Every structure is written in structure tokens, then in C-alpha cells.
Amino acid sequence: MKILVIGGTRFLGYHIARKLIEKGHDVVLFNRGLSSHDLGPHVKLIRGDRYDYQAFVEKMRGKKFEVVVDVIAYRAEDSLAAIKAFQTSVGHFFHISTAAVYIVTRDYPSPLKEEDFDRELYPRPKKNSGWWEYGYQKRKCEEVLRGAHRKQDFPVTMLRLPIVMGEKDYTLRAYSYFIRLQDSKPLILPDGGMNAFTHVYQGDIAKTIASNLLNRSSFGQAYNLAQEEIVALKDFVLKAAEILKKKVEIVDIPSKVLENIAIGTSFSPFSMRRPFILQTQKAKEELNFSSTPFNVWLRKTVDWFVKDYKGDPPKNYRLREKELEIIRKFKKAIKSIH
How far is it, in rounded angstroms, from Cα 282 to Cα 152? Predict the structure, then answer.
């Protein structure tokens, strides 16, 4: 099949493109052409900015793809342009959505099912609203795509993802923990790292897309994709330490204390106040979804960062000395109480 991946050279899009190439498909990338790739000389590139909507639609004019995978739609306008570009020229359109569409709803439950999308929205916070804006705008993407499916039979499948893990992860969120484990110094876990989550491995997303091309029963539907195991942040850190063959001293400091002393919890990107767990039964039944075991994908991710990652440390690692000073003061304060 001839397949277009919008994005495709950095992390998730790269792995999706690679899987499709492995399956023998003719893959075309649309992106700005700023990042190199090792996907092979036969992969075609259409260079452009998908956020220049008029130019994007013009570049797609006259081009037909059996499948389009949109990895980088973040606002309703992005999806509206995609609908306009492909409404008569695509057999299946995959929209990469996010589980953040649930975070902006009031009192979201655990685990989360696809129908929890329809819960009442939480008001936009006055401060630190970036997370809210992201989830809200991704909801708007889904709404326009769902509307296009109802009104004009647009063949869209929406995949809601939690935090995506794996090799080539440029966000460096997992590396924020690995690099601290590697320096063998104490590690703060806000609230003891007891928050639970279900992340997802990049390979499982790519595999699911590759095995559901032109699956008409998925048109107009949204699916949660996530790992099978429910993992606490503390367990994630301890398993990573085991893989790295490092002993770790975990220091449990309440997140409210960290916020009051103006460091916050940005050095611990996986810290959340509430459990964030996705139910994947619908994807299992309708997409034949299955997940790579947690221990397997974590080892692959750790190994890649140790052996292959050549970039800078995460920006939050600049806080390391401040973290260690807080640990010293916290221990001293605890000792004085006893």
C-alpha cells in the first residue's frame, strides 16, 4: 500500500514508518525535512509545514494514499486541514490522539474507558494550564474528525495514547530517571512514587497500526492503547535501577512540600497526584491489540539510552544539585524531629 506518515523522523512517527516499511509498504513522509533518518533511500519525502494549512492542502492535491497516519495534529485546525486534503483521496486515516483528552474531564475514574471522553470538562486552570490546553485541543481534533466521519464518512480511526516509551524518545522523560540513577546519588520521588500508570511502548502502537490498515470496522472509533501491567512510579524506578545495576536510595518527600519550596516536581516527569490507568479491552477485541511486557520494553529503552543516546541531559537535570540540597535539609529536619 502507499502510505503517508505526517511527521515520521523523530520518535513515534519514525517507529510507525519503520514498521510499515518492514511490512513492505510504500511509505511517504510529510515533514519539514529538518531531521535526518535511516529509513532507507526508497522512502519519499514531501517537504512542507503542515501548519501552513493552505500550502499543506495544495501539496496534497492530486495525491492519493491508501492510508494516512497523522502523528502531529494538535489543534482542530490541523485536523480540519487534513480532512480537506484527504476527504476524497484516502482509504484509511489514523489520528494519533492522547489519553490527555481524559485529564481535562471532572473527576475522571480509574481505569479509563473510551466513553469517559464524554464526561463534563474541568474548567481551565488560571495557572499552569499547559496540560489542560494540550488535552483540550486534542479533544477538538477528535471532535472535528468524528464529525467528518458522521457527515461525509471520513474513514478515521483515533488512537488514544498515554505516555509513549521506547527507543529514540526525544522527550527524555524516562531518561530523567535513568540519568539520576546513573549518578548513584539519592533520588527524590514525590509522594514516594506511589502514583500508578499504564504507559505504552512505541512498538505496540506501530504494530497495531500496521495490522489494522483499511480495517473498516474501526472507522469513526477511538481506542485506548496501553501496557497490560499497572506500574507505580517507584516500581518503574526500582526496575530501571536493577537493569542499570545501580543501588538507589529513594527519598520520599510530599509533593506539597516540594511545591512550597519552589522546586516543584518537574524533575520527576512521571509524578501525578492520581492514578492514570487506561482500559484497553476495546482495542484487544476490535484491533487485536497486545502489549509488550513492561520488563521487556523498559530494558530496551534503558539499553538504548545507555548505548545509543548521544544528546544532552534532560533540561530538568539542571536541578540536580538543588535536589540534593533539599534531600540534605529534609533528612536533617526529619532527624531533628526524632
Answer: 25
